[in-house]
Write a structure and sequence with these properties.
The radius of gyration is 25 Å and the shape is globular. It has 20 helices and no strands. By secondary structure, the chain is mainly alpha-helical. 53% of the residues lie in helices and 0% in strands.
């Protein structure tokens, strides 16, 4: 990506985006209904229109039957209210080109706009203005990256003379970072073209292939556990029932609103791939189904990147015999960094509020003690076992056993740091420098 970025930046200013017509001339002939198509086809080939119509209906019924047979893959859900939840980060943002331009202009508005704070707030988790929320408009073609870039540059030219140097510098830093993410998006599209079908292969650009595949997994990792156990782990990850509030909050936000922050996407993807050791394509498919800003290249390219099998693959000299290593995010540490007061986790894991408030009271109304309940898995486990039920007598519906314990065969009260230590040891044995590169920038 860095090589691509430097080459693009060396080209200088892009041309002004071509203006598209606001309306198109009427079609020379009105569209035909299905029945009219059958009649027209029958007239041309001298066939009985009724017979041809029956054939068309038969083909349609067979197609519907095949689709109904696939219904086991998904659950019935009501998606009519996506974005209407008061907790939604995309609340009030409509669809279409007009809404897209309103969002872009409002975000860049000199008085009350949030563009100057983009660099500082882009890793936020709560609210509508911590990031641009333009990803869904870009994904559906309501805006183009070139149009956004042109608007940003015009905005910079207008404020150069009307603000002091510090404000202009802060604005330029935010614009540069936003342009960097737009370039990353373009890079993902070029990457998808270069990959072709390999964009959907488990090992992507890596030469590694497992020595043997377990039953039920055509290109498994040789773990031998079978798919049933992994499927259960995956289902709990989908439903936001992993036992780790930072992960669960992000997954619940996705199910309810169709959106998830960039920081949340990195963490839940790392958790699925590295801690649960589930095929990254399962997670990519779940994102494909739920994200309102779903984009084929950005989704699958970023999942491959995080799994260590995409752009800049995480392999060693023995890549053909050693499995790739994903980019790891410690969700406990990430929660402390990006949700220090637990606002996000409180919002999406409300069943834990009574426990954390009780713990804070025990510690003399210490707010830090309440936050620790969401981050420290050992403490949360102990509180769940102690409480058993909330003040109304209902059992607290939250996993008392963390899912990482199921995945790794650990003691139920062991926290995620143990899982990370295991991953670090495996990584060092392979001679790969361990670290994280936090650039899964689909949601800008």
């Amino acid at each position: 990506y860095s090589m691509f970025r430097k080459q693009v930046e060396a080209l200088g200013l892009l041309q002004h985006p071509d203006l598209l017509p606001w309306s198109l001339p009427p079609a020379w002939r009105p569209a035909l209904l299905a029945e009219d198509v059958a009649v027209e086809a029958a007239r041309r080939v001298d066939l009985n229109a009724a017979d041809l119509k029956r054939s068309v209906n038969h083909l349609w019924n067979q197609l519907c039957l095949r689709l109904s047979e696939l219904s086991w893959m998904v659950e019935a859900e009501d998606v009519s209210d996506l974005g209407d939840d008061e907790r939604s980060a995309i609340r009030g943002l409509g669809g279409g080109e007009s809404a897209a331009w309103r969002r872009l202009r409002a975000y860049c508005e000199p008085a009350g706009g949030h563009l100057p704070s983009y660099k500082a707030l882009r890793n936020g988790l709560v609210g509508t203005d911590y990031s641009t929320k333009l990803s869904m408009y870009l994904a559906h073609g309501c805006l183009t990256a070139r149009s956004v870039l042109d608007h940003l540059r015009g905005h910079l030219r207008r404020i150069d003379a009307s603000n002091d140097a510090s404000d202009v510098a802060r604005m330029r830093d935010s614009v540069d970072l936003l342009v960097l993410h737009l370039l990353w998006r373009d890079f993902m599209h070029l990457y998808a073209v270069s990959m072709g079908p390999r964009l959907f292969h488990r090992y992507g650009r890596c030469a590694y292939r497992p020595p043997a595949a377990p039953i039920g997994d055509g290109d498994g990792d040789g773990d031998g556990d079978g798919d049933a156990r992994r499927w259960e782990l995956f289902r709990r990850w989908q439903r936001g029932q992993t036992g780790y509030p930072f992960v669960d909050a992000s997954m619940r936000e996705l199910l309810v609103t169709g959106y998830m922050s960039n920081r949340g996407r990195q963490n839940v993807a790392s958790f699925l791939v590295n801690d649960l050791r589930v095929d990254w394509r399962w997670g990519a498919s779940h994102f494909e189904r739920h994200l309102v800003d779903y984009d084929v290249a950005a989704n699958y390219g970023n999942w491959q990147y995080l799994a260590g099998v995409g752009s800049d693959p995480r392999t060693t000299s023995g890549a053909a015999t050693r499995p790739p290593v994903g980019r790891y995010f410690n969700v406990a540490k990430q929660a402390m960094l990006y949700d220090p007061d637990a606002t996000f986790m409180r919002t999406w894991c409300p069943e834990l509020r009574p426990l954390c408030e009780t713990q804070a009271q025990r510690c003399g109304d210490d707010a830090a003690a309440a936050v620790a309940c969401y981050v420290d898995r050992r403490l949360l486990t102990a509180l769940l076992q102690e409480a058993g039920a909330d003040a109304s007598g209902r059992r607290i519906d939250y996993p008392a056993e963390p899912i990482a314990a199921l995945a790794h065969g650990l003691d139920p009260v062991a926290d995620l740091l143990t899982a990370k230590d295991d991953l670090v040891r495996r990584t060092k044995r392979r001679g790969v420098k361990h670290g994280n590169i936090p650039l899964l920038a689909q949601a800008s």
